[in-house]
Amino acid sequence: MRDNTLIIVLPCFNEEEVLPITIARMSDLLEKMIARNKVSDDSRLLFVDDGSKDKTWGIIEAAQNNKPFVCGQKLARNAGHHNALMAGMKTAVNAGADMVITIDADLQDDINVIPEMVDQYTEGVDIVYGVRRERNTDTWFKKSTAQMFYRMIKLMGVTLVYNHADFRLMSSSVVKELLLYHERNLFLRGIVPCISDNSAFVYYNRIERQAGESKYPLRKMIHLASDGVTSFTIKPIKALIGLGAVFIIISLCILVYVLYNYFRGHVVGGWSSLMLSMWFIGGCIMVGLGIVGEYIGKIYMEVKDRPRYNVEKTLLK
Ligand code: UDP
Ligand code: MG
């Protein structure tokens, strides 16, 4: 059987309202799983305080004193959801976790599927994605913008798991591979599926936030979406070359139109040359930008210094 020390990482940013409920429910769940031998008795909960300004850290500290399996990590300032997750996952594998589960501290994701995730891990799966069955509790706006985002990002050629956010289980080997991605613009939802295909899904209904309010205002959501595209693909730059080519072709059509008008004598002096050069030069500039962009794109990919491959297993003697 696989080793089964579980560390559950919960990023918290100004979550004083929901945290007491979360600590109670998660502790309950972990105690039950330990009692049933589903996970080893040194399994823990790791709350990562992402530079909160409220009583979040105080609550974590108090819980840590009361319960043996509650741990905390405080980031010096707000580093953002994905960075808080990375910090927690790193600490978890260094602390000896065999599997790590990440889940939001607001309990919008159904914690009752966690045992099912652990079962999948025990059977040999390395990544278990928590997938929302429907989005009934989201506002119409959040639902439609999310759908638009998935469509756009698929068009750009990025692999994402549909309706999966950051509720997932990863084996320690996957987390270690993940830590090899040193990029600053961290888009976890895109990177994790690149690491291993040995994955499974558990489905759940997403519920309302238990308390407090969303820490993801529209501004942060747009930022996340644009990060998702720009940190994964240079297709937008490549598109410039195509667009430039289209402009040059249009300039040929315009040539016919201009000549037609010129010979019929319908034109003001200088119109023909202006019309033609505008489209033609515009097209050339765009193609030129696209070519420069191709090189910048290459530099961008090199600078990211992503691992070229991810190892799943090695049998050496
Ligand atoms: N979060 C964080 N740092 C941030 C913003 C959010 O650690 O800068 C945490 C937050 O405490 C929560 C999780 O990320 O546990 C998801 O945030 P939220 O529930 O507000 O997002 P939503 O569910 O509304 O998309
Ligand atoms: Mg939430």
Describe this structure in words.
- It is built from ten helices and seven strands.
- With 317 residues, it is of the alpha/beta class.
- Strands 3-2-1-4-6-5-7 form a seven-stranded mixed β-sheet, with helices on both faces.
- Helix 1 (19-35) links the parallel strand 1 and strand 2 (44-49).
- Helix 9 runs antiparallel to helix 10.
- The protein is elongated, with a radius of gyration of 26 Å.
- The two termini are 22 Å apart.
- The mean pLDDT is 91.
- Residues 11-13, 15, 50, 78, 80-81, 84, 104-106, 108, 214-216 line the site of uridine-5'-diphosphate.
Sheet with the most strands: spatial strand order: 3-2-1-4-6-5-7
Helix content range:
40-55%
- SSE class: alpha/beta
Report the oligomer.
single chain
Describe the global form.
elongated
Percent of residues in β-strands: 5-15%
Q: Termini distance?
A: 22 Å
Give the number of helices: 10
Q: Kindly state the mean pLDDT as a whole number?
A: 91
Largest sheet: 7 strands, mixed
Q: Give the low-pLDDT segments.
A: none
Radius of gyration: 26 Å
Q: What molecules are bound to this protein?
A: uridine-5'-diphosphate, magnesium ion
